[in-house]
Amino acid sequence: MNLLVCSLLILSFFLTDIMCLTDTECPNVSSFGDRRKSKNTLRLVQYNVEWLFIDYYSAMDCPGNGCTWKTLSDAEIHMNYVADTIRALNPDILNLCEVEGCDELNILKNLLNTTNTINPYNTYLKKGTDTGTGQNVGLITKIDPITNLYRSNEKIEYPIAGSTCGYTGTSSTTSVSKHYITEFQLATSDKNENKNINVALISAHLIAIPTDSHRCAQREAQTQILQNIIYSYIQKGYEIIVIGDMNDYDNEVLDLNGDIPLSSVLRIIKGLKGSKQGLYTLTNVAYRVPQNERFSDWYDSDNNCNTTSTRDYSMIDHILVTNNIDKKIANAFIYHGYKEYCGKWNSDHYPVVVDFVF
Predict the structure, then answer these.
(1) What's the confidence (pLDDT) of residue 191?
(2) Are 154 and 226 in contact (CB under 8 A)?
(3) Domain positions in the chain
């Protein structure tokens, strides 16, 4: 980022400690801290924040005509709306999709600190390989992971064996372009358990468009890569949290409209299909949310800006966990604290929220 742009960012957000970096990665954990007020409760939030871009990304022309926010001013307004939503939820661990880089995470982190005290949040991001959109998945957290964020470079051929997508085109290979892996140690007050629970957090933003057979086949292959990561941690005795925008539906935990997926994406993540079928089981926490509240995404599919129709809402953002983590959930909900409409400043997704008691 050049000096002029950096100066504009600092002035526009009234920040004094934002870093302007040429490399927007920040995957390394320099020291461990737990800045939660209550050490035995944890609020986890999944939030696709829709093109959280401040630095200009030329390959996508964003901010610009290539994304939702046409000007830097628009992007700044959107950033403030996102910050308002996050402040209302006060998460301990926040996973974000559609983030450009660490500059944006640091701007957001500073906007969250309105009390002029020590900021409880740290930011982490491992840059992905989606050079087309420039989007990444990132982490803002009050409790630091115990390992640096890292990625899998595995590639898998698609369509995979047993694919349900109906894709009959040329086979190819894919990776998971937007994901990260890290680990947490969470203290528990349960006398029947070890003092600390080892948890692998696996975040992903899979390729979009649930109804496209080609992308469906790619998404299944991406999910097989995630399954391989999950199983490697299962073998080491870890608890698992898989979190992100999976761009697909769950045919067992139906959303508001009862959307049925073409793919087996959610079944692969759960361990019900795929090469590691039957070797582990994950549960979608959305089963705890009433079906009429199960929607996390708005898409104006018919381009008529009719937001009174429920048909444009679906649930494609998911959090899946091992049984021991599921048992510690006190509450789960999808935050619908703002309206979706053409010309809105909020994200086109809603946050998925889970409260744990350890």
Answers:
(1) 72
(2) no
(3) 21-144, 151-348
